[in-house]
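Ticket #4471: structure export looks truncated?
Reporter: QA, pipeline team
Priority: medium

Steps to reproduce: submit the single chain below to the structure queue and open the exported record.
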Amino acid sequence: MQITLDIPEALQQNLLSQAAQTQTTLEQLIIQVLDQYLQPAKSDNATDQLLSLIGTLDLGTTDLAERHDQYIGEALYRELHHAE
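Actual output as written to the record:
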């Protein structure tokens, strides 16, 4: 597939300079940059599965977001005291 782009002169110079520094072609550099840019958009099945669980679990705690430090502290306290 071939795509033609009008790139501003300053950006073109930066791309050409970067291509020369990395010893690659302008085309390869642009493909690498676009691929890296699109990486976060690619879905991760594990992440998608975890996101689908949000709001579906009943933990019996409704203030976890506000008091998470307290809950972590209490859990650590119990863990340390049960170890003795």
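Status: closed, not a bug. The export was complete when the record was re-opened. Leaving a note from the reviewer for reference: The mean pLDDT is 85.
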